[in-house]
Amino acid sequence: MRHIAAMFALLCSAAPATPPAQQRIVLLVDEIKAIRNFPVVLAERLGYLEGVTVMNIRDDAPTAEMLMNGRVDAVMAYYHHTVVNRAAGRNFEAVVTLGVTPGTKVLVANHARDKYRTPKDLAGSRIIAGGAGSSKTTVANALLLAGGHAISDYTRIANESKDKIAAMLRSGGADLVVAPTPDGAYYEAQGVATVFADLTTAETTRKFLGALFPSSTIYMTSERVKAHPEIAQRLADGFVRTLRFIHSHSPEEILAVIPPEISGPDRVAYLRTLKEEIPMFAGDGRMPRGAAEQERRVLAELNPRYKQVRVEETYTNTFVDAALRGGDAR
Length: 330
Description:
Layout: H1 2-14, E1 25-29, H2 38-45, E2 52-56, H3 63-68, E3 74-78, H4 80-87, E4 92-97, E5 104-109, E6 126-128, H5 135-146, E7 155-157, H6 162-171, E8 176-180, H7 183-189, E9 193-199, H8 202-209, E10 216-221, H9 222-227, H10 229-248, H11 251-255, H12 260-263, H13 267-277, H14 291-302, H15 318-329
Parallel strand pairs: 1-2, 1-3, 6-7, 6-8
Antiparallel strand pairs: 3-10, 4-10, 5-8, 5-9
């Protein structure tokens, strides 16, 4: 009997332990219904974000605060937030780079078309963008710098509703507007502006800005990345798979995955916008070489504090590299 008991104890000790429950990850998205964020909708619907809770942005709590205090593990938003927050003492870093272009168009009012033809002509222009640190203003600043000007060489006009912007372009109150899709199409349809710079594709972004320009990213605090690299890896795995799906499927096939509560009832209009937005995600998840430094330089022209930011600390390709190797192995 002692022999049987001893054998039983040995078998029990050798039996594999019950695997721990998968850690719950919370990903905060900067407005999930915005067309720029369709990859996260795809990832969730395709089952690529298993164990990840996708949470939409909240008005009552700043995104940076939610990330810093651990209420969320990661944020899906534009890359420039990592630079801005590092300058403020918050160590954020992108673990996946989804967007490699601004995904916007700059339109010129009909009354100003002959005056503003290229970025070299933009001195003295009046451009409707966003707040001083917004992605739209970053795009406007990048165009001025690409044209050989200082960012003080143009007048930035704050955003308004689309109707008010159209009225300003029509009346001569503004010369250009930085417009995300589908806003640009709206101004064209109103007959008040035409495309000045298409910054949706990699080719045209390089043409106008000289390099790719990172936009949509997944970022975390550096402390969280170090303490829980498995979180960064799971997010990288899911979004690398999502980018591959985008690259290997037609816009119509992608639309079939997007639910009506995201696209809205006009699926035809959504598809038209989707086709314009897809080229923004032409990369493989890595930060393109030189792209982060290009954007930091533009930001530093706006605020000298950003010059102190070490750009190599604002992103990592480590987890995407591992995800790509894993995908190749499969």
